[in-house]
Amino acid sequence: MATFTLTDGWTCGPFRGPFAAIGGPADDAAVSLPHDAMRGLERSPDVPARGAAAYHPGAAVSYRRRLDVPAAWADRVVRLEVQGAFRHAQVFVNDQLAGSRAEGYARFWVDLTPFLVEGANELRIETRAGEDSRWYSGAGLHRPVVLHVDPLIHVAPDGVRVTTLGVDAGVAAVEVAVTVANAGHRTATTRVESAIDAPDGAGLDADSSPVTLAPGAVTTVRHRYHLVDAALWSADSPALHVATVSLDSDASPEVDPDPRIVPFGIRTVTVDPRRGLRINGESVLLRGACIHHDNGPLGGAAFPRAEERRIALLKEAGFNAIRTAHNPASPAMLDACDRLGMLVMDEAFDMWTRGKTTMDYSLDFPRWWREDLDALVAKDYNHPSVIMYSIGNEIVEVGTPHGAALNRELAEHVRALDPTRPVTNGINVALAVLDEVATNAGLNEGMANPDQPFNALSASESATRRIEESAAALDVIGLNYADSRYALDAELHPHRVLVGSETFPAQIGTLWPLVEEHPHVIGDFTWTGWDYLGEVGIGAVAYAEDKPELVGLEREYPYLTAWCGDLDLTGWRRPVSFYREIVFGLRTEPCIAVRRPSRAAHTVALATPWAWSDTVSSWTWRGFEGAAVAVEVYADADEVVLELDGVEVGRTPVGERMPRVADLDIEYRPGTLVAVALRGGAEVGRTSLVTAAEPALTASADRTALAAGVRDLAYVAIELRDAAGVLVMDADVPVTVTVDGAGTLAGMCSANPSTEERFTDAAWDTFDGRALAVIEAGEPGEIVVTATAPGMEPARVVLAVR
């Protein structure tokens, strides 16, 4: 098998029907994949999708590429692997339709063999996106496209599956199943050979067996291994073995001579209501983050390095699991999760038969859901990081008889494809019974609860009855915003296993103790771990003085992001992230967050349940000397003392307003602010904030050595810091970035949730003292990145491309 990642050589332009050729040739732009065709379009408050799409318009585009076919391919099978095309993709070869797919996140295969001719061919892929998503989807070929050229006798696509059958007394039983196809016209016999290597590269075992295939036949060969003291894969120790599979090509040139290399992990996954989730027999609580698929300034494009960086930073922030909301993860993201040790709930759909937006997947679901679940499992099977499949998110119809029957059908389809992983569904219980609210007084009373109306409704008798059938078909019941069912279901349904599949970020202080208390609740997934494009402003604190406009829960143009992530769009940890880490028991050092003094006199008009307080971890507030400021200290303690330059300025109990939160009002004076956490009068931790001196412009890269030819990335943080390195968050300036040498500026942003700045621009204002430039490597050489700002010395960073 020869594979070619078709990264370069593409052009992209607006969709043009056959009659458009009368107007002359298309003026398309050269692009490289992965590519988001929506990212650079003009935003407007009047676009149909409004804030859901971050005020981006829809996009119907055509990608074109020349494909040269040598004579040697005459006896080959040529397939195209499209890892993600948003949306309604059609693949044409020489103007002939070769394949299509409706879903924008599904990986799919297209057989090009019947349409190719020797010499030059035109490959064209058309996609259409608009009013079909509740968040920013991006558009076009947002994930890689790979060409596969196979001899007639070959391992089928996704034809190697490695399964851990069990681990007992230090012996791991592992099966390597190889699906072999004969696309020729003669019966052939070959040998299937497989070998297992340890994480350190040492050979562990190998096997070989003959297989005979009639013309057109597809069959499976299985090798079973029993490995002694093999390293097990887990989030804490992500040990990856390698299976190498090949066919004996000595007997015939029609047999594929190239090996398949498949990384895999040896691990088991079980769930039960008494011991919860166990991986390799060890109990694990899921410290989870829901995440959308976009990569901030890169839009929806799934660059492997961008996916890896997100997973690494989420893990550093204390998460051990992600939920891919609400669509299948890219192969690159799963590769990163395998390497770094991040558990994955991979989700298939945001809707089934009942639409949530005008032109969404509900129109395609009846035709495509089986193929899309097939694609999900085929993609995920060898990834040890994937521990659970989710068949949906907040599916409206799960509370109806027909919806429950469909839920069971989907769950059984997934189990038939892969019986080794649990199946879940993120059920918004309140949504499933909203149709009864108008006619049921008890439900109306529940909805009238001013604190948690959906949570109260989720615990109602009606909700219990309506979701019973759907819940019974699942291995793990996902509950969105319904922690009121945790204790209730332990009593009513003692055989159920639950997970908080989506929860409000500010409630983790009360939610996590519930997870720890109830063994049948296996974890919590906050909305969200990382800020994202679209659903704009749902987590932003709205002040009356700003005259905010709301469209549903979303905010007015030019809001760009949801502003509800533990990490902002640049990957910077917000105060809620440190609070969560303390609640998880992973951090003993307290955290200080200060409400912005410039907003002290303003009136909060709206703070949704997805919002955190309008705070930053800074003690630099020039112009507010002598003003009263509100300070929040997050600590696993019973009392907090604040000291300013060694003098006590405040003392208060922890937990009066929120668990593990102390609130203090003190006078702002420059200096060193220290928070001391006390338990029983004894110090258990301390932290400090220091007032910054005059800022200078700085630039620092997350990595300075990049690989050539693979669209590798470096993330350059452009920050305002003083000589001691203290971040200056109250003095934002316009910054311009230039890139010289062997690289280009792939995108730029700040964390500002409301801005008209464009990701394709090289000039942004810093926000809370920071901006971010994403640099893409080109050919081998040196890259010089220079940041400039008015009245400041330039900042430079040098990167090497090898």
Automatic annotation (TrEMBL):
InterPro entries associated with the record: Beta-gal/glucu_dom_sf, DUF4982, Galactose-bd-like_sf, GH, GH2_Domain-Containing, Glyco_hydro2_dom5, Glyco_hydro_2, Glyco_hydro_2_cat
Keyword Hydrolase in record: yes
Ranges where the DUF4982 domain occurs: 627-684
Gene Ontology molecular function: any one: hydrolase activity, hydrolyzing O-glycosyl compounds
Highest taxon, organism lineage: Bacteria
Record domain Glycoside hydrolase family 2 catalytic: where: 277-438
Residue ranges constituting the Glycoside hydrolase family 2 immunoglobulin-like beta-sandwich domain according to the UniProt record: 159-251
Protein keywords: Glycosidase, Hydrolase
Residue span(s) of domain Glycoside hydrolase family: 697-797
Gene Ontology BP annotations: carbohydrate metabolic process
PANTHER family associated with the record: BETA-GALACTOSIDASE, BETA-MANNOSIDASE
Sequence similarity: Belongs to the glycosyl hydrolase 2 family.
Name recorded for this polypeptide: Glycoside hydrolase family 2 TIM barrel-domain containing protein
Taxonomic source organism: Demequina lignilytica
